[in-house]
Amino acid sequence: MDINIEKAVKEIESKGFLDLDLDPSMNLFEAIEDLKKEKNAVLLAHYYQEPDIQDVADFIGDSLGLAQQAAKTNADVIVFAGVHFMAETAKILNPSKKVLLPDLKAGCSLADSAPAGLFKAYKYRYPDHLVVSYINCSAEIKALSDIICTSSNAVSIIDSIPKDQAIIFAPDKNLGAFLNKQTGRNMRLWDGACMVHEIFSLEKITKLKIRNPKAKLIAHPECEDVILKIADFVGSTTQLLKFAVTDNCNEFIVATETGILHQMQKDAPFKTFIPAPPNNSCACNDCPHMKLNTLEKLYLCMKYELPEINMVEDLRLAALKPMNRMMDISRAAGLIG
Ligand code: SF4
């Protein structure tokens, strides 16, 4: 093995990715397409990835859509352009396939807000509670859960549980509070949140609405209640995209990660999409974890098939059980085919 590659492989654990120089004149789009064919690889990208990665992906989607694609792919290699828990989810569903993530350090503040040890102790205090966890959590939290949900299917999942059954909802307290309102439940909420969706500024959004009186505010349910209360529409990333494209309004203030604006603009080129401003000096709200993936890291990860996601089989099987329950309930509710 070339000495530089050997060094880069050794450094994956500390750096999270293969740190190798590339010829700047290289056409990475073509090179990635060639690698897909050569390795029978499928490239799944989350809506929050940078536009270049979305444009070279085979499938773009939110957590539920990508989990479905991962479950039914015939490819030998799944390249996941997203964050760590998403690639882990693909591995849980596809143990025999190689799952690659361009940067292992692409984590998630929401998933990190539920450490497995603390959550296990919390669950132990409420033995009669069923645990419903949002898919944005680690494999260890999935393994401690009874059913997984996404923001697209959460209401159907919760409605499928008998009304008198007590529930713990983890890890997102904002999504949990929104679901309590939607379903009329009083679920016990784990105190976790997403750093991207929690930072929107009510004051700046209100001013933006005054300056753009025709614009509708659309928001992801991971946002705080104060933002959801003034939103014209609340939905998962896919639901926000669909609403923005099909609604007769032509201007939208979008309160979620800004990566989705790329697909909105592609699907509705004559409409205006304004990113909702956060409570800091920036004008838009990028997820720093999602944006760790780059086209260069993606190419290198596909070429050398590293970094790879691996998982102990006992953990995988325990995490698979609540994922399968989610898929069964979603199928029964007609949410997936
Ligand atoms: S946007 Fe929030 S929930 Fe999504 S990956 Fe980033 S930190 Fe996690």
User: Rough shape?
Assistant: globular
| Average pLDDT number | 95
| Name of the CATH superfamily of the largest domain | NadA-like
Q: Helix count, per DSSP?
A: 17
**Strand share of the residues?**
5-15%
End-to-end separation: 46 Å
What is the CATH topology of the largest domain? Rossmann fold
Number of domains: 3
**CATH classification class of the largest domain:** Alpha Beta
Low-pLDDT residue intervals, each spanning 5 or more residues: none
Q: What structural class do you assign from the helix and strand content?
A: alpha/beta
Keywords, separated by commas or semicolons:
single chain; about 325 residues; alpha/beta; Rossmann fold; 3 domains; four-stranded parallel sheet; 17 helices; binds iron/sulfur cluster; transferase; NadA_sf
Describe this structure as you would to a colleague.
The mean pLDDT is 95. Strand 11, helix 15 and strand 12 form a beta-alpha-beta unit. The longest helix is centred in the C-terminal third of the chain and has 20 residues. With 337 residues, the protein is of the alpha/beta class. The protein has three domains: 122 residues, 3-Layer(aba) Sandwich (Rossmann fold), CATH 3.40.50.10800; 101 residues, NadA-like (Rossmann fold); 74 residues, Rossmann fold (3-Layer(aba) Sandwich), CATH 3.40.50.10800. It is globular and about 60 Å long. The strands form three sheets. A four-stranded parallel sheet has the order 2-1-3-4, with helices on both faces. The chain binds iron/sulfur cluster (SF4). The site of iron/sulfur cluster has 13 residues, from helix 7. One of its GO terms (cellular component) is cytosol. GO terms for molecular function: 4 iron, 4 sulfur cluster binding; metal ion binding; quinolinate synthetase A activity. Its EC number is 2.5.1.72.
